[in-house]
Design brief:
This protein is mostly helical. The protein contains ten helices and no strands. The chain has a domain of 94 residues: Tetratricopeptide repeat domain (Serine Threonine Protein Phosphatase 5, Tetratricopeptide repeat, Alpha Horseshoe), CATH 1.25.40.10.
């Protein structure tokens, strides 16, 4: 029983201590928030007095003092937006929209964030920001108008991008076709050059063949010349007339000559026989007496 009471007392002690610590943390958070709020008020006054450097410094100090102060980053983002520092304004409006739990302030933060994105011509993210703002306040006509404008600008941007991509593609195709034609022309010139070199080599080879003939010994050249002259003196068979082709060579008799020669020989032999017959007749004795 004694141990149970002791454990219960220890539990109460730690609970009280934790509560005390939470209270102390809460008090410190409240103190930091008050200090942050005071710095925000000072920064607002300085900004109204056109003392932007001091106001910017106090806004930053206020933001670092307490993360629960969402007014300071929102006002600093507005100051950046008015000075056309859209990159800095984007960060502060985004910080406000993510930190605040109050719908009116969340709506203003995302609405202004959409305006920054419109200035940067980031229409897709602007559409998303305006939609986020309408979730916190669906009845804001200005946000709805800005959303419609952002959608229209996004569509126009996409069409222009598509047209630009098509133009780039057409230009690339034209350049590729031009390069291809140039390559073909270069290839043709190269082939012609190779053909010219080949013809030149062939002509050179023919010239070398002629040189080989000239480099023969002197006696061979003269012999070849004499033989060539003899052949030139002989009439070519293809150039002779038909009757000349049929003429016999000097040492060969034609058929007609042979026939004439045979006939002459036969005639001569006939004459010889006739002479011999005549001699036989003259040599025979003639009887003077009658043969009774």
């Amino acid at each position: 029983m004694y141990k149970i009471r002791l454990m219960f007392a220890v539990l109460i002690f730690y609970t009280v201590m934790a509560q005390a610590q939470d209270d102390q943390a809460a008090k410190e958070a409240q103190k930091a928030l008050r200090a942050s709020t005071d710095l925000t008020w000072d920064a607002n006054k300085e900004l109204t007095a056109n003392d932007f450097p001091t106001a910017e410094s106090d806004y930053r100090r206020a933001i670092s003092k307490s993360s629960e102060n969402t007014v300071a980053p929102f006002n600093l983002g507005t100051a950046y937006y008015n000075r056309e520092s859209y990159g800095e304004a984007f960060g502060r409006f985004k910080q406000t929209g993510e930190k605040t739990k109050e719908k009116p302030q969340k709506h203003k933060a995302y609405h202004n964030l959409g305006n920054v994105l419109m200035k940067k011509k980031d229409y897709q993210q602007a559409v998303d920001a305006y939609k986020q703002a309408l979730r916190s306040n669906p009845n804001d006509d200005e946000t709805r108008y800005n959303l419609a404008l952002a959608k229209k600008m996004l569509e126009k941007q996409q069409n222009e991008q598509n047209n630009q991509n098509q133009d780039d593609k057409d230009q690339q195709d034209q350049q590729d076709q031009k390069d291809q034609n140039q390559d073909q022309n270069n290839e043709g010139d190269k082939e012609k050059e190779n053909e010219g070199e080949q013809n030149e080599d062939e002509n050179k080879d023919k010239g070398d063949e002629g040189d080989n003939g000239e480099n023969k010994p002197e006696e061979n050249k003269e012999g070849d010349g004499d033989e060539k002259k003899e052949q030139e003196k002989k009439p070519k068979e293809g150039d002779q007339p038909e009757e000349q082709k049929q003429q016999p060579r000097p040492n060969q008799l034609s058929k007609q000559q042979i026939q004439n020669l045979l006939e002459a020989m036969q005639n001569e032999e006939k004459k010889v026989q006739e002479k011999m017959e005549a001699r036989k007749v003259r040599g025979k004795k003639v009887k003077n007496e009658k043969d009774w």
